[in-house]
Design goal:
With 221 residues, the chain is an alpha+beta fold. It has two domains: 5-98, no CATH class; 107-193. It has helices at residues 5-11, 54-67, 102-125, 132-138, 145-158, 164-169, 175-191, and strands spanning 25-28, 44-47, 72-77, 85-89, 194-196, 203-205. Helix 3 (102-125) packs across helix 4 (132-138). The longest helix has 24 residues, at 102-125. It binds zinc ion (2 copies). One zinc ion is lined by residues 197, 199-200, 202, 211, 213-214, 216.
């Protein structure tokens, strides 16, 4: 899932409920918006999901008395605003399904930063014989597809046998990238006059009759 930079910044924030002092949960904004029709203007909001919070506890009775239906309010705060408000909730569990894992999101942010760094290195990696950014992008399933395609092309140009192990060890979700990587490996092996032993997967000379690593007879072509 692609989450934009703004969300990461918001997810880093920590806020506490002024009523119960508990830390607010960072949640995805609901698809509906009561009020001006302008929407929330944000993808994430902070909500006090503490069931013992005074706001939540006392509002059940108020709603029952005033409107005769079962609902309550939770304290909520929009990102980058100092003063919060309340949001009506129909049940205890409203919002529990939309809680954002803030730790996970900052981990995603680190991944994204690394991807950006790797992408920036692509232009110079062949000249510098630097395989690292290419392998990073190829084995990062969440990286931009365009960058991964580019990495496949550069793989052949780099012509480095060291790329084989990390690629073989990777479980690809994207079949096209896997196929392109395999194709590049085939070319690189040919350029180096090498093949992979069908039994132990070690690299051996293309003409070898017996693998020097496992001693098995190589498959005849
Ligand atoms: Zn609270
Ligand atoms: Zn072998």
């Amino acid at each position: 899932m692609f989450v934009d930079k703004r969300c990461y910044e918001i997810a880093k924030q920590k806020h506490n409920c002024p009523h119960c002092k508990e830390q607010l949960s960072c949640c995805h904004t609901p698809p509906y918006h009561v009020g001006d029709g302008l929407g929330w203007g944000t993808e994430l909001i902070f909500i006090c999901l503490n069931d013992d919070c005074s706001v939540f506890k006392k509002s059940w009775e108020q709603f029952e008395e005033q409107y005769g239906h079962s609902a309550s309010c939770r304290y909520m705060l929009l990102p980058n605003e100092e003063k919060g408000g309340t949001m009506m909730v129909g049940s205890k569990d409203a919002f529990t399904g939309s809680i954002v894992d803030q730790d996970k999101m900052s981990a995603g942010n680190v991944r994204y930063e690394n991807e950006k760094k790797a992408r920036a290195q692509l232009d110079t990696c062949v000249a510098e014989k630097n395989l690292e950014p290419v392998i990073f992008l190829l084995t990062d399933e969440e990286a931009h597809l365009k960058s991964r395609h580019r990495a496949c092309e550069l793989l052949t140009e780099l012509n480095d046998l060291a790329c084989i192990d990390p690629i073989r060890a990777h479980k690809f979700h994207h079949t096209e990238i896997e196929q392109l990587s395999n194709l590049a490996i085939t070319k690189i092996l040919k350029n180096h006059n090498r093949m992979e032993c069908a039994y132990c997967a070690e690299l051996i000379k293309a003409q070898a009759k017996i693998c020097k690593h496992c001693g098995k007879e190589t498959a005849k072509k």
